[in-house]
Amino acid sequence: MNAHEIDYKIYGHDLQFVEVELDPQESVVAEPGAMMMMDEGIVMNTIFGDGSNRESGLLGKLFSAGKRVLTGENLFMTAFTNNGLGKKHVSFSAPYPGKIIPIDLTLYDGRLICQKDAFLCAAKGVSIGIEFTKRLGAGFFGGEGFILQKLEGDGMAFIHAGGTLYERRLNQGEVLNVDTGSLVAFTSTVDYDIQYVGGIKNSLFGGEGIFYARMTGPGTVWVQSMPFSRLADRIIASAPRAGGSRRGEGGILGSIGDLIDGDNNF
Q: Which value, to the nearest 10 degrees, does the dihedral of the CA atoms of residues 127, 130, 134, 135 take?
């Protein structure tokens, strides 16, 4: 194996974290700020790119780091190495409520495509790169632009999904239509395209967006029930407006709610 072999355990239900067990000189790489706690003896090191060493030399490392910038991620990653004696543990927390998905890349031909902000951490040696969408429509309207994140290698990787996670295995030619924001990841054998919802009423008043992702098997697709963008929209919609009233709670019932909560002053 090129990637380090790591063991892990996932804790929690809705606000999860993953504990990675490292043997001496084993390493795991993660997004900056994801670390929650670690044992004495683990050394933290900020690196360019993903530390997979697939590109040699300074230019290669800059290219690897530059690919991450295109996906909207940080230029740097953090590597955690067990420099002590015996097994050590380091834990990484999910950025918002949802599920952490452990992915053994050897089970999926060494390659997984995921949305740009899904990656949490991986065994050192796993390459975190970019995947350009093959179709113009998918690039413009897919919700993730022309670029998705690509995980490659023969080790363990961990991605994160919001809300409840659903894993769907598609047979040859089987089609699954998915809200573009709800799509988390899919295997490289799945054909990914964007379809127009159709109909003026559906487009303007359906509330489901104008386009959806059309996933055609064979392969595996992971779907999340609560994308972070949808969660953020609901929080913003419920935030108090200037003057103390809450959005979406106008009229008599909204005024009564403000009065009960003490939002109105007389």
A: 150
Distance between CA atoms of residues 201 and 148, nearest Å: 30
Q: Is residue 250 part of a domain?
A: no
* Other CB atoms within 10 A of residue 43 CB: 12
Tell me the β-bridge partners of 152. 111, 127
For the question of whether the overall pTM of this predicted structure is more than 0.85, the answer is no
Q: Which domain holds residue 174?
A: 7-232
Q: What is the pLDDT of residues 19-77, one digit of tens each?
A: 999 999 999 999 888 999 999 999 999 887 666 665 555 555 565 555 556 555 667 78
- When divided into structural domains, the chain yields a total of 1
Q: What is the pLDDT of residue 227?
A: 76
pLDDT tens for each residue of 81-133: 999 889 999 999 988 888 999 999 999 999 999 987 889 999 998 988 877 66
CB-CB contact of 17 with 36 (8 Å): yes
In a domain, 90, yes or no: yes
Is the CB of residue 81 less than 8 Å from the CB of residue 45? yes
Residue 27's domain is classified under what CATH number? 3.60.160.10
Contact 245, 254 (CB under 8 A): yes
Q: Is residue 88 part of a domain?
A: yes
Tell me if 103 sits within 8 A of 187, measured CB to CB: no
